[in-house]
Amino acid sequence: MPIATGQQGGAKAFETDTRVVGVDIGGTGSRLRVSTGRGGRSYEVTGPPAAVVAGRSTVPDVVRELCRDFASEFGGRPRVAAAAVGMRGFRAMTQSGSLDANRVHDILAEELRTGSTAVSSDAVTAHLGALGAGPGATLAVGTGAVAVACDDVGRWHLADGMGPHVGDNGGGSWIGRRGLDAAARSMDGRRMGASPGLVQAAEEHFGRRERWTAVNDVSLFAGFAPRVIGAAGNGDLAAREILDEAARFLADGLCAVLNHPGVAPVAVTTGKLLTYAPMFRSMVLRHLLEKRDDVRVQASAGLPLDGALSLARMLAAHPAVVQEHVPLLAVRIGSAPRRVDSITLPRVVLPVVRPMARPDSAPVAWAVEVSSDFEWSAGEVPAGGMVPADAVVPLTGERLVVGRPSRSRGVVPDIVCEDTGVSRRHCEIAWLEGGWTVIDLGSANGTYVAARGDALPTEPLHPGERRWLADGDRIYVGGWTCLTAREVTASVH
User: Fold this and answer.
1) Which residue segment(s) compose the domain that 342 sits in?
2) Total-model pTM
C-alpha cells in the first residue's frame, strides 16, 4: 500500500543523486521508504512479512514486490543513490543457507538501478534507528528479540536474536507460544501455568483446539502476544507470569550487552511490542534497573526503518566506511562486495565514522567558530551559567569529531565542547568530495543545522544523515553551543 509523507511534491520530483531507499522486513509485515536528504517528500509502500518455506526464505520475493510497488507509483524503474535492507533472522537464514544475500543485492540493483546496496540484520538497523551510530544499547522487541550495543571504539555486541527455535526469548513469538500453551493447559484440566482467561482468545486467534498442534507460524504466535499482554493487565496470573519471565529475559539480554567494557550506560527500547505495550516496557526496565541502576533510559529516536534509511545514507555519502561483516551486514559497491576479515560474535565491528590521521594535503581554508548562543540556550542554561566556549578551530585533516571529553575513558575529541548537553562523540565534520560536511554520530540531544540568516533550526539531522556546509552555516549541539562554519584565509592556524 503506497503512503506519501513529507513536503510538497511526489515521488517523481526526487532528485536522482540524493534519493535513498530503506527497507524493513519483519515477522508481521514489511515496508519500503524512499527519501531525499534535501527536504523533499518521502514515499512509503507496505508489503507482506517474510517466511521460510520449504527451506527457502521469501525475503527476495518480498523485496522485489516492494520495489515494484514503488516503481509503479513512480512511473517506471527509479534510480536511487543507495538502498539498505534490514530484516529479522538475517544471521540465522544466511548461516542455514535458506537466504543468499547476493540475491537481495541483485534485486535491489535491478529494480532500483543502484550500485550501492546493504543487506543486514534488523539488529543493526534497529540500533541505527533508535540510537544512531553512537555508544549505548538498544533492545528491539517485535516478533523476535535482540539486544545490541556499540561501545566507545566502534565495536558492536549482540545478545540473542537467534531466531524462534533457539532464541528470541521474550519476543512476540515467544510470548504468543507460551500464551497458547497456557490456554491448552486450562482446556485439559491442568493447573500449573494454566490460563482459563486465554482459552477464548486462543480460539478466536488460532481457531479450534484441534488445530493448535499444527501451528508453526512465528508471525501467528507473535500476533497472539498482545492478547497475552492484555490478559496480564486484567489480572490473569498465568499471563502475568509469562510476561514477567519475558521481561526478565529481555532485561538480561540488555544487561549482557551493557556490561561490555566501553558501552555507555544508555539504553533505548524499540519495536512494536514495547512501543504499544507501556506496561510490559515498564516491567522490562524495572528488571533492568534492578541489575544496573546506573543506566539512563532515553526515548528512541526512530524505528528500524529509519535505521535502514540511515544506513543507506551512509552508503551513499561515505561508502568507504561501510564494510561487509559476516554475519550481520552484507555490502556491495558496484558488482562486488566490500569485505574485511570476518569477525565472530559477540564482537563485530560495524561502520562508525572515526577520526583519521591528518593528511598533509588536507584543505586548511575553513574553520569553525565555537561560541555560546543565548537564544539556543533558552530553558537549558545550568544554574552556574554557560561554560565559556569561544574559539576558532581550523578545519584540518579529513575528519574532526565534535564532542565532550572524558578523562576516565580517554575520550579527547578534535573539537572539544564542555557543554554538558554534548555527547562524547556528538557529530563529525568531514571533508568529502571537495567540501565540508557534518554528520550526527548518534548523539543524545541531536545535531541541528541552520543556513546563514535562517531562524533557529527545529529538526535535528537523522543519525547517519550528512549535510553539506556553506560559509556561515550554524551547527547547534548540546544546551548552548553553536559552531559556525567560516571560509577563511589559509593563514588561520
Assistant:
1) 2-125+303-349
2) 0.60
